[in-house]
Model the fold of this input.
Amino acid sequence: MTDTIKSLSSLLTEGKTSSVELCQDYLARIERLNPALNAFVTVDAEKTLLDAAAADALRAAGNAGPLTGVPIAHKDIFCAEGWLTTCGSKMLSNFVSPYDAHVIEQFKAAGMPCLGKTNMDEFAMGSSNETSYYGPVRNPWDPSRVPGGSSGGSAAAVAGRLAPAATGTDTGGSIRQPAALTGITGLKPTYGVVSRYGMIAFASSLDQAGPMATTAEDCGLLLNVMAGFDPRDSTSLERGKEDYTRDLNLPLAGLKIGLPREFFGAGLSGDTARAVEEAITQLKKLGAQTVEVGLPNSNLSVAAYYVLAPAEASSNLSRFDGVRYGYRTPEYKDLTEMYEKTRAEGFGSEVKRRIMIGAYVLSHGYYDAYYLQAQKLRRLIAQDFVEAFKQCDVILGPTAPTTAFKLGEKTADPVEMYLSDIYTIAVNLAGLPGMSLPCGFDAQGLPIGLQLIGDYFAEARMLNVAHQYQMASDWHTRAPTL
Ligand code: GLN
Done:
């Protein structure tokens, strides 16, 4: 199944298939392949087929939207009414959400059945999906390797064609890096474009939801569903509805692509550098010009992020105390011990590491030295992009320094793991939109990701560049044999 949601939508419109048939096909594939991939934490065929039957009824009544009946999988970070919503943690291993996240509401309103909830790093903290309480996800291109993270389940599901599309979230790279490592297309919107209501918080000033699919065109169609003002998220932007697919077919003649010199230095693997160079050549053939730009503070982005993200996480995760919902330790003698044991047993080690770092950098005496300094760096990093976008329309580079690594290869050294996001994190700190799309394979047959970064609200332009590239290449059509 290499179907795009665009083609599935046409099949449904032409009456060549039904949503129930489509969902049955995907559910059968999930049943066959998920035991090995572990891409889904929860599958509930009955629920999915109810959604599908409702979508078919809407179509029969002539009330269908373009994507009505096309199924989608959701990262287990989104609260979905009646679905177990774990966020990859033991802490929420018994949490059935009583309400829908904004994103889930939007997909429901579009009539898109939910295929299940996808595995992820615990509370979205990770770059390999190995911090999940529900076990690691395997990369469909090579099961001994990671799919990236934290949206590793969504990435593996789409890459393995267990779902035509999935939702993800990106705090420091968690949509783009797994998209790169599994050979799919994923987009992180401008901060504030998609509501965070009902999306379990990691680092609220960085978290942003976005689509993961096989093509840029599909990402545009999905973003049309997800985006929009929501008064329940105080950082949701009050902007008019946009059609993110409106510029897909514009020619690239005259496009100025900025190449940050900091993205092409040492640390980038040879195969990735070569594939990115080839993509640049291809884009030049389509009429684009390149200009070298500088992001002089980008080398500080990982350091700034690992102060700011843990600081926000330490505050956000204080709500998991065993009192109102989620896991509670079975035995305790008083309230304090209940808190202590619940949090000691409910959180995994990466989450505890972040809570401790966050509490430390926010504490009296260290706040000025770390947190405030990191906030200043964040401003400088954002300013670099403002300067760069004076010279170009989009910025281009690699998504990740290497292709998919082996399970266990980076778990012993957290800093090594953190460096997987060296090219993606600055985008979150600046609040800019970014995406990853496939641009080739390395010598071992593993996919390589190309990153595009847009100016604020330039999603449509970025999708235009990606779509034109995909019209002229076929990397995005390649799928692993499973
Ligand atoms: N890998 C980064 C981290 O562990 C980013 C994760 C994310 O984007 N959710 O924090």
Remarks:
- The pocket of glutamine is lined by residues 124-127, 150, 170-174, 202, 309, 421 (CB under 6 Å).
- Residues 318-375 form one domain.
- The two ends are 11 Å apart (CA to CA).
- The chain has 15 helices and eleven strands.
